[in-house]
Amino acid sequence: MPWMLLFIAGLCEVAWAIGLKYTEGFTRLWPSVATLAAMALSVVLLGLAMRSLPVGTAYAVWTGIGAVGMVILGIVLFDEPASAARLACVGLIVAGIFGLKLTSAA
Fold this sequence. Notes:
The chain is mainly α.
C-alpha cells in the first residue's frame, strides 16, 4: 500500500507541476485552485507513504516520477524535443526508480 500511495503522490506532483503552466502565475482562478489542491494531495500522500518507506527512497521516487512525468508531458503538450539523449536520460531515471523499489525493505 505505501508504494501505491507514493505512486499516486508522484502523479499528483506531475499534475501540480503541469498545472503551474496553466495558472499563468496564479492569475487564473480555477487552474490555480486545481494546482494547489494537487500540491496538497501530493504532499499528504507522500507523508503517508513515508510512514512505511525510507525517507530517502520515498522522496527520490516521488521526485523521479515527477521528473519523468514532466518530461513526457513537455514532449506531448508543449512540443519539447524528444531526442535520443533526453529519452535515454529519462530511462536512467526510470531505472533508478525501479532500482530503489527493488532494494527497498518495505
